[in-house]
Amino acid sequence: MFSTRAARLGTLHELTKFALVAIIAETLGYSPTTIERHATDWAAAHAQYVATARTERQDTRRK
């Protein structure tokens, strides 16, 4: 089953990679605070991914 909520949230996360929070909020009718939260969540998830990838790469080099 496809979740429209999950699709909407995923789209908001993707948009925050490419456009300013104020522009997304105004265009889509969201509160800037809501869009900023999505941008922050995406940045945190991306930072965690990068940190994990670096750690795994370093562990591989040590072997």
How would you characterize the overall build of this protein?
- The chain has 63 residues and is mainly alpha-helical.
- The protein has helices at 4-18, 21-28, 32-62.
- It contains three helices and no strands.
- It is elongated.
Q: Can I get a quick summary?
A:
The protein has 63 residues and is mainly α.
Shape: elongated
| Biggest β-sheet description | none
Enumerate how many helices there are, as a single number: 3
Helix and strand content put the structural class at mainly alpha
Low-confidence stretches: none
Strand content: under 5%
What's the SSE pattern?
HHH
Calculate the mean pLDDT score and round it: 83
In whole angstroms, the N-to-C terminal distance is: 43 Å
What's the count of strands?
A: 0
